[in-house]
Amino acid sequence: MHTMVRTADRISYFGGVLAAVLVIVLVVLMLYDVVQRYAFNAPTTWGNDLNTFLMGASFVLSIAYALSTDAHVRVDLLYNERTRPRLAYVDLIGLTLIVLPAVALICWGLLNHLEDAIRTGERTGSGGWNPVVWPFRAVLLVGFLIFAFQILAEIIKRVAWIAGRPFDAPIIAPQDHGV
Q1: Backbone dihedral region of 175: left (phi > 0), alpha (psi from -120 to 50 degrees) or beta?
Q2: pLDDT band per the 50, 70, 90 thresholds, residue 75
């Protein structure tokens, strides 16, 4: 189990790093597109589609990383230093009964959309570039599969915590936000 959890954490970390790099590329390309459009009155034909793909890819590839590092948004009313250990049960129930089944359904739907896009050669239908959409849909599916794998790892972490055998780094320890 430790190997599976560590593997999931590493894959999620890689996805987070890749997402960060994609955001940097996105900023550079958006800046280029804006300069072309307003300084030279020569907008790109690929800017809108590529920027949309990069933003979506960076978002979906960072979801598992946020979960693995406990960096996602929580309601502070419930999750504070005093209540976090007891909320391992809430996390376990939520991850097992709500989040994992929802992500599994999303993965199934994304797989169907990817197959349809490949079969039909679907294109964006916008701008002069008009690229096929299957590469972007493949990235979405991969991102959600990584997320599902990380959810399984988080479930194992919660069970280990509840059983009194937490993993190396505490999973429910409060984050230091410099406040």
Answers
A1: beta
A2: low
